[in-house]
Amino acid sequence: MSSLQDQLLKAGLTTKQKAKQANSDKRKKNKQKRSGVKVEASLQEQVKLDLAKTQAEKAAKDKALNDQKQQQLADKELQQRILQILQHHNIKNINGDVEYNYTDNGKIKKLFVDGVTQKALVNGRLAICALADTTYLVTSETAEKIATLDASVILLSNEKVASEEIEEDDPYADYQIPDDLMW
């Protein structure tokens, strides 16, 4: 009577390579039994290692997801803080007939202001900020504080003019150009 293995080979359900591998595994298990090592113990160890590996991967994935959520929360908190500062320090009642042009994301936009506000913008005492498609006019000190949090919010912040002193030897001292000159 032939063995089950021979019958499977004749039927074409297995290959010689698989049969050799099965015999090899069978010999190894028998040798381990004779030497006193339990096969079940090695399987349990393998299961424990797999479980530990799976838990470590899950912990790493959870940590990465948690870090991402924390970063999103911190970004949202920063935006809310900037918005609160802008709303609190926004200068109102600046409407006038003087047109002041500035750029916002590559587009030229207009802001109608009065003469005093225009001079303050030109001299660097005021700055223009934008957040969530809303434009805010704030003092330069507020703009500096916001720039420390997020510089991309500042649209226009001119450097402060120290003073408008006229040099003694300036040949054009008598011909000053007015700030409100429109071309």
Q: What is the structure about, briefly put?
A:
This protein has 183 residues and is an alpha+beta fold. Among the domains are: 4-35; 90-157, no CATH class.
Q: Your description of this structure?
A:
With 183 residues, the protein is α+β, with helices and mostly antiparallel strands. Among the domains are: 4-35; 90-157, no CATH class. The protein is 54% helix and 16% strand. The chain is built from 5 helices and 5 strands. It has helices at 4-11, 16-35, 39-89, 115-123, 140-149, and strands spanning 98-104, 107-113, 126-131, 134-139, 154-157. Strand 1 (98-104) and strand 2 form a beta hairpin. The longest helix is centred in the middle third of the chain and has 51 residues, at 39-89. The protein is rod-shaped.
Show the helix and strand layout.
Blueprint: H1 4-11, H2 16-35, H3 39-89, E1 98-104, E2 107-113, H4 115-123, E3 126-131, E4 134-139, H5 140-149, E5 154-157
Antiparallel strand pairs: 1-2, 3-4, 3-5
